[in-house]
Specification:
The chain has a single domain, classed as Helix Hairpins, CATH 1.10.287. It is rod-shaped. The termini are far apart. Helices cover 73% and strands 0% of the residues. By secondary structure, it is mainly alpha-helical.
Length: 59
């Protein structure tokens, strides 16, 4: 599950990048947070897909 604090921090850094720019450390943090977010998203999506069962009505 994706933590709300993770999303808030990603959004904060995105807004700061648009307005005043990011430091080198913040840019690295932003990249790492995005990687973490994508990993969690993919895991959750795979879990959702594994819950579905496809049936072929022609058989």
């Amino acid at each position: 599950m994706i933590d709300e604090k993770l999303i808030e921090r990603i959004n904060y850094l995105a807004n700061k990048k648009k307005t005043s720019g990011l430091t080198k450390e913040e840019t690295i943090e932003q990249q790492e947070l995005r990687k973490e977010y994508l990993q969690l998203f993919k895991e959750g999506f795979k879990q959702q897909l594994s819950a579905y069962k496809v049936e072929d009505k022609k058989e």
